[in-house]
Amino acid sequence: MPASTKEIAVFGSSATRPGSAEWEDAVRCGRLIAEAGLAVVTGGYCGVMEAASLGAAGAGGHVVGVISASVFPSRLGPNPHIAELVEAASLTQRIHLLLDRASAVIALPGSLGTFAELVAAWNDAYVAPLSGRRPQPIVAVGGTWRKAVEAVAAQLAAPAELIHFVDSVDEAVAAVVRAMRPFGAPP
Fold first, then answer.
1. Facing residues of 64 across strands?
2. Which of 10, 57, 119, 167, by CA, is between 20 and 30 Å from 24?
3. Which of 169, 172, 139 is nearest to 26 (CA)?
4. Are 33 and 131 in contact (CB under 8 A)?
5. Helix, strand or coil for residue 152?
6. pLDDT for 102-155, tens place per residue?
7. What is the pLDDT of residues 64-79, one digit of tens each?
8. Strands 102-107 and 63-67, how do they pair?
9. How far, in Å, CA of 35 to CA of 58, rounded?
10. Are the C-beta atoms of 53 and 149 separated by less than 8 Å?
11. Are the beta carbons of 162 and 126 closer than 8 angstroms?
12. Chain centroid offset of residue 138 CA
């Protein structure tokens, strides 16, 4: 992978099964990211992670998987579409490595683990200006994330506007691609 290729973290449920609408959306997400010349980085296992990896690899994209065998000993190993494997010692290190590599984040439907990743990305975007960094673009797909983030934001007076909410994978990837363009570049 060229050093200049930006990586997009894709978060989502490990319970998503092949053939489901969520699986097909994740495959499409990975493919669209790769077709835009961006790499995909996921948690490396099954479900949405595998589907996004499959879509990206099938389109000739680079796929990174960040796994943690000590946290998930019952998982059979990384999905077969990963070109670059990174091992994390803990769950928090895994999330840190995903965010550290990513130029942007897309959260697809998921559960508590996906929400933890989304909240970590949100918090990182919130504190980024304190160290002179530009916040990573964060895009969340679906109404569940909007409701969850708005509830947390209301309780904690947190800036929900750091997360861009969309209804589809196509909108999510388009938002990330726009955010990855150099300033002043044509659309």
1. 41, 84
2. 119
3. 169
4. no
5. helix
6. 999 999 999 999 999 999 999 999 999 999 999 999 999 999 999 999 999 999
7. 999 998 888 888 789 9
8. unpaired
9. 10
10. no
11. yes
12. 8
Supply the pLDDT for residue 145: 97
**Banded pLDDT at 185 (limits 50, 70, 90):** low
**Exposure pattern of 82-116 as b/e (b: 16+ CB <10 Å)?**
beeebebeebebbbebbbebbbbbbbbbbeebbbe
Element (H, E) at 11: strand 7-11
Over residues 38-53, the pLDDT tens digits come to 999 999 999 999 999 9
Three-state SS annotation for 32-97: HHHHCCCEEEECCCCCHHHHHHHHHHHCCCCEEEEECCCCCCCCCCCCCCCCEEEECCCHHHHHHH
User: How many other CB atoms are found less than 10 A from the CB of residue 26?
Assistant: 30
Which letter does DSSP use for residue 116 in this model? H
